[in-house]
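Write out this protein's structure.
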Amino acid sequence: MRRALLVSATTVALVAVGGAVNACGPSRAPTATLSADETVASSGFAAVTVRRTGTLDDGTNWTVMLPQVRGGDTGVRAEFNGRLDAVLTDLTGQPSGNGLTIGDGSLGTAERSRTVVGERTLAGVVIVLSGAKGAAHPGVDVKTVVMDNRTGQVIDEPFEDHGQAQRVIADLAAANDPTSRLRSGGASYSSFTAWLPLPEGLHVYVEVPHVLGDYIPVTIPWAKVSGLLKPDVREVLVG
């Protein structure tokens, strides 16, 4: 059976304890955001997003809402939240002299940074919009973290046969693309290493040229991809 989605982060603010990530200067208390009718999963985890700000010596600065969780197993929570902190560090990078401005990004009207808590999974996607001084167009970056919420083990390679999955999912992504932008071909597994498990299927973020939007989110039904998954991963993601 498919694993049900139990909770995801949206919009009621509360003040969380702890400092914001800031490469230079004092930190600010992060603001956590959660659903007004928040349901805590059977695992005890609840999805939140936390405001993070920071600067680098070259003038790069960022203010983003970072996916996190609260509650649940202490060790698993620390591992998940730490992994997403590392994603933010990776996205904000090192001083390059360009003086980037980085903020919350979106793909269409619904795709924003968020945490997704399932029966057996914790997953987070970070979507940021960054632009250098003088650049004509800012770009979108997407990174994800998926974890077994019982063991804290990160699921970074879900497929039994990487090569087969690369061929099959490239075709499936194009066939299930609601925008039709992928149907001209060219998608490959290396183009969508960012993904989330959703109740309805494997949600992949396909990297495309900037003129097409940088990333195209596509959900592929579990029935079409479950046979490609490692057996232990299938149990966690699909059931």
